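Anyone have tokens for Pleckstrin homology domain-containing family G member 7 isoform X7? Sequence:
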Amino acid sequence: MIPWIMQRKMNSNIARHGLYGNKKTSRKQQKIFMNTLKYLQTHEYLLDVDLWRLFANLEELSQYFRGSLCQSHQIYCLNYSAAVFYLESLRQRNDFGIYLKWCEQNEQCRRLHLPELLVAPLHRLTRYPLLLKNIWKRSTDSTEKIMIYSIKEKVEKSIRDLEGKVKWLDNFQKFRHLQEIIVWPPLWDRDKRFFIPECLKHIFKEHMAESILSPTNRHLLYEGKLTLAESTRFLDVYLFLFDDFLLVTKTKRNKKKVGGSDSSLICHSLTPELQTVIKEGGSCTVLDQPIPLDRLVVKSIDPLHMSAFGLRNAFLIQHENRYQQCIAAFLLQAQTENIKKTWMTQITSAISCFIKRQETKKISLFTSPVESSEI
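Reply: yep, here.
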């Protein structure tokens, strides 16, 4: 804890150097948006708008360094990305649009828009270390300099911790949505060559998607929409490139579905293509088993060979078993040549990194010290 006399002196010094900005103005603008919404809800308007999802703990954000450093800012920042996505879904409504327009046209708002208000605490937090450093340079009191430097170190650590939490939370939410949208068909549906009597199907327990698509086990490196060339048709597919395997899925849309997924609950980090699939009640059905990166071969296709088939920007993905036999092949077409090159680069890089990790693990196993039998 900072001694209250030193804390008071620090806050005064920081305020003189413009750390807080126009605090009174920002609070007035904040109250216009929040209090107007509260007033409308007391009169039974916009009752379904969740005040916390939109503003989180904005009211309690303290501009002073006291107690748990940046604790309130961390709570706010962790909710920020979800709040922005929630706001975007609300802005599509006429009644919420009228509320926003009225607030933004208020003289006290000074033409500040709600997204600018919501992002302001993040900008303020990232400015703390630099401003504290400037104050430390100008300070002549040795005791104060020590205290300022200590606070700067704590703020920088808090920001680093926050960045890690935001990345973890974003990754966790994304994988949770992937578990919901990716469908894993059973063996007999995936490949008609295999006949399994109904009485024996209970024996074949597929691994659950929760364990395969777990943020603790793997990371999603790249993803996107491509076209798969089949013998009689072209198929829209969506590829997920993880750090240990590639997954080829078929996008299925269900535009006739009524009351589909709530758009306000869709993860903001999902691509627009996947967000559209979810909104339409669709899914991504796995076409074949995951392709381990050390069994994957990617090859570019010469345009001359594909022009007769109407294919452009094509490349080939092969799945080889441990005996280097090709057990699956996917002829893919990208929208542009640049997208094709990007996909091939991403896959090649992922394969290289995966193989290096595997080799490092093997080396560490062989070089690890062996315990003495006498111990």
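The chain is about 50% helix and 15% strand.
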